[in-house]
From TrEMBL:
PANTHER family: PHOSPHATIDATE CYTIDYLYLTRANSFERASE. It comes from Prevotella koreensis. Pfam families: CTP_transf_1. This is Phosphatidate cytidylyltransferase. It is a multi-pass membrane protein. The keyword Transmembrane applies. It is found in: Cell membrane. The chain crosses the membrane at residues 12-38, 85-104, 111-134, 140-165, 186-204, 216-236.
Amino acid sequence: MKNLIVRAITGVFFVTAVVTCFLSPITMVFLFAIVTGLTVWEFTGIVNTLKAVSVNRFISTVGGVYLFLAMAGYVSGFVPTSAVFVPYLLTVVYLFISELYTCAENPINNWAYTMLSQMYIALPFSTINALAFMQQGDGTIAFSTMLPLSVFIFLWVSDTGAYCCGSLFGKHKLFPRVSPAKSWEGSIGGGIFVLITAAVVWYFTGGNDAGSVLTLPVWLGLGLVVVVFGTLGDLVESLFKRTVGIKDSGSILPGHGGMLDRFDSSLMALPAALVYLYSVTLL
C-alpha cells in the first residue's frame, strides 16, 4: 500500500512536470536538458558495471546535454548557424582518440557503448526540439506546445489502455521472451484509445497551436506511429535490462525506477514521430 502511494505521488509530479514544461520553450529546453543528462549518466553507469567496459560518464553526459542544447538553439533560430554542432563533433572525436591512451581491456566496447549512449538517448531526446519549434510560411519560427506534448500524452494513454485491456482480455503474448506481461490484446486496446485521444486533440486544438495545421488523418497516423514505436521502445529497454541483469534502470523516481524506465518508450517514439511528420507534412 505504501509503495502504491509513493508511486502515485511520483507519477503525479512526473506528469505535471512534463505537461507544464511545454507551456514555455525555456522551461521545455531546461527540463529536457536535465532529463537527457540524467538518462545518459544513468545508462553509462549501468554499462560500466559490465565486464571490460569503462565509458567516460562525465564527458558522455556533457556531450549528450550539449547535443540537446545545440539542437534547441539551432531549430529555434536562437543560434543561426549549424557550426553550433562543431564542439559536439569534436567531443565525439576526443572520445574515440582517448581510447588510445586509456589502455582499456576492450576499447571497442567503450566506443560502442559511448556512441550508444548518444544514439539511443541524446539524439532521440534532441528531436523534441524539432517537434516543438516549427518554421512557418513567412520564415518565422513558432513554438508548438501540442505537438511534442501529444507524443507523451499518446504514450501515457497507450500504456494505460494496454494495461486495462491486457488485464481484461489479454491471452496472446506480444513478446514473451522480453516482456511476458505484454499481450496483443492489450497493445491493440491501447492503440484504439490513442486513436480516440488523437481525434480529441485534433478537435480541441483548433487554431490555437502551431500543431493545429495538422489534419485529422495526420493526427490519427501520428497516434499509430507513437503506439507502435513506443511499444518497441519499451521492449528495447526491457531487452537491455535483461541483458545486463537488472530489474530497474535506477531509483531516482520513487516507485517508478530510473529515468530510462520512464522515458524508454519516448526514445523510439519521438524520432519516429518526427520522421512521420516530416514525411507527410511540411514542418
